[in-house]
Amino acid sequence: MDQPNKVFSVAQHGEIRLGDAVVDDFDLEPQAPMVRKIALGPDQLGEGQNVELAIVPDKTFVPAGLAALQSTDTRQLGVRVFRAFVQPKQ
Q: Per-domain residue ranges for the chain?
């Protein structure tokens, strides 16, 4: 993941949540890509067919609200995620 724009002068703090439980937290510096590997046990994943993980940053922004970005994008954005997957331990 990363924050490709220098919209914040300090790092974003974020949490990775599995349901209501925080399973990881991080500080993401602007323009500094990061890879997170999180060990999750079977007891955390449960018996269901689906598991929902959420990445929750403490700061978000709307590109259209920042003149320097010259954007018409009105979405509220946090961090950019390139790929997320779950891989069983071998």
A: 1-90
